Amino acid sequence: MQQAISTNKKIVMSGIRPTGFLHLGNYFGAIQNYVKMQNDYECYFMVADLHSLTTHPDTKELKQNVYRVVAENIACGLDPQKSAFYCQSHVKETSELYLYLNMLAKMGELEKTVTFKDKARQNPDNINAGLLTYPVLQAADILIHRASFVPVGKDQEQHLEMARIFANRYNHRYGNVFPEPHAFNYNQALVKVPALDGSGKMSKSENQMATLYLADDDTTIRKKVMKTLTDNGPTEKNSVMPDYIENIFLLMQLVSNTDKIEKYTTDFNEANIRYGDLKKELAEDMVTFISPIRQKTIDLLNNEKALKEILEIGSEKANKSANQTMQIVRETMGLNY
Ligand code: TRP
Q1: Nearest CA to ligand 1 atom 8
Q2: Calpha distance 311→154 (Å, rounded)
Q3: Active site residues per annotation
Q4: Which of 60, 86, 196, 254 lies at a CB distance of 3.0 to 4.6 Å from 315, suitable for a disulfide?
Q5: Which of 46, 137, 150 for mutating ligand 1's site (highest number of atoms within 8 Å of CB)?
Q6: Minimal CA–CA distance to 218: which of 281, 296, 283?
Q7: Which residues neighbour 210 within 8 Å (Cβ) at sequence distance 6 or greater?
Q8: Is residue 199 part of a domain?
Q9: What pLDDT, in 10s, does the model give residues 275-324?
Q10: Does 6 reside within a domain?
Q11: What's 302's DSSP letter?
Q12: Ligand 1 centre and the CA of 264: distance in Å?
């Protein structure tokens, strides 16, 4: 069988929905993984603009959202020279593969997808067929590069399971073309980035004051960190750490140096900790971490030419890989006349 790629590195593929501002949880949960993977694998990272049409038919802000997510990922260290960083709609063959895979997807299995049921419930006036076949399009994104590894969180596990089912069904019916794609993460447990108000993980949609965005300015970062809940401190040595204090330490582990963390851990255990100082230092470390990313994002967003070029380089690489796969697909399916 024809070889798809020039190197024999394993292939990685992941999609990023263009839904606005990224936050610290996105950085430590996903982007950091992507940045690391680009050195070890052949990587395809894609902005899922077509997927967003299933829930956001109004495209007024789509371009701006695509550019923002591209700029933020580049500012975080995604390297368009090392990876193929592209836009889903720029690889037309994806839609072709999506069509073929739709013939292999069973109505029943699509209808019982948890994300479909959730979205249908949230938006009863727009239960469109694209929403139903969302996992088929996602499978096409992955299989078009014959990727083996997909760096995604737990919420995507069912979609990935469906991609494996469609791949296997294809292989069984038409010949062995697709490897089974599996979730991939460097760390066994994904890094947990707690929300600043102790309400669970940092997330886009919840309380904005509890989430640190990569676009937050320095004053906002300081204000958010200083507002995190503390108390008067432990009254006895070696007390059990309350959740909300542990969360502050978890955040420190992301951006502060080990000496500082050790100092405050010791202070806590000695029942002699000044949370005001701790938060001030954490706020400064957050500013040091976030502000260069924010600045780089702003610079890129002001340079549409550079953004377009990044997407062009990416789509060229992605299209090359997609074309190779689709040639094999058309041949194995008998569509080669
Ligand atoms: N569905 C994914 C999400 O909601 C985005 C996505 C689209 C994706 N295509 C993909 C993820 C392919 C991994 C692989 O985050």
Answers
A1: 15
A2: 28
A3: 119, 201, 204
A4: 86
A5: 46
A6: 283
A7: 195, 196, 197, 199, 202, 224
A8: no
A9: 999 999 999 999 999 999 999 999 999 999 999 999 999 999 999 999 99
A10: no
A11: T
A12: 39
What sign has the CA pseudo-torsion 292, 298, 299, 300? positive
C-beta of 326 in contact with ligand 1 (< 6 A)? no
Calculate how far, in angstroms, residue 159's C-alpha sits from the geometric centre of ligand 1: 8
Which tokens in the block code for residue 320?
């090359």
Expressed as residue numbers, the domain containing 273 is 216-296
User: Do residue 79 and residue 119 come from a single domain?
Assistant: yes
Calculate the alpha carbon distances from 239 to 28, 60, 244, 270 in Å: 29, 54, 14, 9
Pick the closest to residue 324 from 4, 1, 94 (CA basis): 4
Best of 87, 156, 157 for a ligand 1 pocket test (most atoms within 8 Å of beta carbon):
156
Note the maximum CA span of the chain. Answer: 80
Report field, pTM of the whole predicted structure over 0.70: yes
